[in-house]
Design goal:
There is one protein chain. With 231 residues, this protein is α+β, with helices and mostly antiparallel strands. It has one domain. The chain is built from five helices and 13 strands. The strands form two sheets. An eight-stranded antiparallel barrel has the order 1-4-5-8-9-10-11-13. The protein has a two-stranded antiparallel ribbon with strand order 2-12. Strand 9 and strand 10 form a beta hairpin. Helix 1 packs antiparallel against helix 5. The protein is elongated, with a radius of gyration of 23 Å.
């Protein structure tokens, strides 16, 4: 029984390694981040409860890595809208430092650009990633002298198109992938229309790892043989 227990423990140890994570990172280019519901919220990103969202439309995606070929400018465009905002500290655009958060909801889409067409076919504007936000926050800090920096971080879950995942990782599962969208500005105050200076969408897709699965199978066969002899 002791030997069987050890074999079971060994197989359980292998389980976390039974799939490998394939990381894809889309590099977000210079874009514009805005506040939906601005008309009812005031001249800036005031806390509006269930009416205010952070969004961007057709922001360039200027690169993707983690794929068979690393690509640059023209990969596609990104459009997103967060779920409703909630103030967690300070008053937006009033206090020197403030933060807003959101939870499940909203949407994020990456549409195909001309640079991808030779690799996955399709045409410009065809969605290659559809997702939604699971959580997120935008934190702003005032450094004085008119400099206010903000950092946007959102948890994302979604799916890739068959054409993209078929090229980027043919052995990956087609299940929903998880990732993180991170954006920030340069030395500028966050008003409606302020540009995105830096950003990336990083997601993980999994694929079975044959060698590990084989070891797992051998371990299970060993348990079966051991229990059979004991009978």
């Amino acid at each position: 029984m002791k030997k069987a227990s050890l074999l079971i423990a060994f197989c359980l140890f292998l389980l976390p390694a039974a799939g490998l994570a394939n990381q894809f990172t889309f590099v977000v280019g210079l874009g514009t981040i805005t506040d939906v519901g601005i008309a009812t919220c005031g001249p800036a990103i005031a806390y509006c409860g269930d009416t205010s969202n952070i969004s961007t439309t057709n922001t360039p995606v200027d690169g993707v890595v983690g794929t068979p070929v690393a690509l640059g400018t023209g990969v596609g465009t990104m459009t997103f809208t967060t779920a409703p905002l909630y103030a967690t500290s300070g008053t937006p655009m009033v206090d020197p430092a403030w933060a807003v958060t959101w939870v499940n909801g909203g949407s994020i889409v990456i549409d195909e650009g001309a640079t991808l067409i030779p690799y996955i076919g399709g045409s410009v504007g065809v969605p290659i990633f559809n997702g939604t936000f699971t959580n997120g926050s935008l934190v702003s800090a005032d450094f004085g002298y008119g400099i206010q920096l903000w950092a946007f971080t959102g948890g994302v879950t979604g799916t890739y198109s068959d054409a993209f995942i078929g090229w980027a990782c043919p052995t990956c599962t087609s299940d929903t992938v998880k990732g993180t969208l991170s954006l920030s500005n340069s030395a500028a105050t966050y008003y409606k229309g302020v540009g995105i200076a830096n950003g990336a969408l990083t997601t993980l897709a999994t694929t079975p790892e044959p060698a590990t699965l084989s070891l797992l199978g051998m371990g299970l066969l060993g348990i079966g043989g051991l229990l059979r002899r004991r009978r």
